[in-house]
Amino acid sequence: MKKVVCNSVLFILLFCSGLFALPGIDEWMPTASGEYVYYRDYTFTDESYIGFLQYDAGTYAVRYYSLGNTSDKKNPIPPKDIQILLTMKKDSAFVELTGEKIIGELGADDVDIVNYLHDLVYEFNARRKKMNGKDFSKSLVSTEIYEQFGGEVTMTYKGYIPLYSLDAIRNEKGDLLFQAVTIGTLLDSSDTSFADFAGFKNLTSLKRVADKKANLDEFWKTNDNIVYSINNKALYMVNTFTFEESYFSNLPYSLEDYFIRNFLTSTEGDYIYLPFVSIQKEKGERKPYLLLTSTIMRTEESMRITKTKDAFQKDFKVLIRENENSYWLCTLTMENDYYNLNKSYFDNYLKTFVLP
Question: I want to staple 178 with a disulfide (CB 3.0 to 4.6 A). Which of 138, 169, 293, 300 is the partner?
């Protein structure tokens, strides 16, 4: 199959409105209204997640969600969902809460969780503030004493993660205690993807299967010579766009950094699993390119609309710099099981038709 080009200009509205920062934090890449991040918290015995959402300047949400454990029929642990809306003093050098609202009813045993969420808001903000001025274009590691997580820990930061830029917390042995699992953005006031997030409980279904090593070239179909697909199982398209590179000359991050944030941002309830993400940047004699590989957990509604049966997708996005101000944006996406079944074909397809 030949490379198909859709000639278009990609208009990126960068930081036009709705950009705020947590108190005292100088963000390397600003967090926009509606952006959020979820973490898996391994300090709980049952599978638990904690999310942070930025609504606007001074308004945030923090949510605790536990899958519970119903395997023990005698003493089942039901799922638990606690969300707190917080308002903070604007333009403050540190967190000063001016109000809060707890969504839902709390039990007597939920008070400790609420206090824990408060502590995280204060601690994460204070520790991230100490990282102001660092170069977040690469991973940063800080070794600290954090009693809430058992003593000495290493905190890893990555600039593309919104709000605190926090990626993971590990103990002295290197065991994960806290890990970013997905970032996302609310598209409008009716978007409930932050409140609906219920963890990545289906990851065990991601089983490797034997590669058929088949040639699928003849199965690609198109109606417009722009988007090609294979029976709703795989899709490929390429766009070209122009962008004035000088826009980033006075910013600490590049166009590639900006695209990493956006390529990895989940929308409309389809959640990208960050621990499986691969980021590859290539420079040199060949044309520079950025390759992002990710695994996406689909919602039932999304699966219905796209007529797919697999709850997970494999997604490849490639940003190629053709010349000054000119870029190619390539997308290759398919059902995860279909990718594993034809891994050698799609890996070679990337090398042959997508990568420069």
Answer: 169
φ/ψ of residue 200, rounded to 5 = -105, 60
CB < 8 Å & 24+ apart, contacts of 223-228: 225/4, 226/4, 226/6, 227/4, 228/1, 228/4
For residues 70 and 12, give the distance between their C-alpha atoms in angstroms, rounded to a whole number.
46
- How far apart (Å, rounded) are the C-alpha atoms in residues 273 and 200? 8
H-state helical runs in 212-349: 255-263, 300-306, 336-341, 343-349
d(CA 293, CA 330): 12
User: Interior CA angle at 126 toward 120 and 131, to 5°?
Assistant: 120
Element (DSSP H or E) covering residue 85: strand 80-88
DSSP 148: G
- Are 63 and 53 contacting, i.e. CB atoms less than 8 angstroms apart? yes
CA distance 149 to 164: 17
Q: Please name the residue ranges forming H helices in 35-133.
A: 111-129
Cα angle 127-128-129, degrees, rounded to a multiple of 5 = 90
Query: Which amino acid does the sequence have at 331?
Result: T
pLDDT band of 133, cuts 50, 70, 90: very high
Phi and psi angles of residue 217, each rounded to the nearest 5 degrees, phi first: -55, -40
Question: Which DSSP state fits 91?
Answer: T
151-210 pLDDT, tens digit each:
999 999 999 999 999 999 999 999 999 999 999 999 888 999 999 999 997 777 677 778
Output the six-digit token pair for 286. 């060949």
Q: Residue 197 has which token pair?
A: 């997030």
Taken in order of first residue, the domains within the chain and their CATH numbers are: 19-199 (no CATH), 206-354 (3.40.1000)
Q: Which two tokens stand for residue 299?
A: 């919602």
Residues in the chain: 356
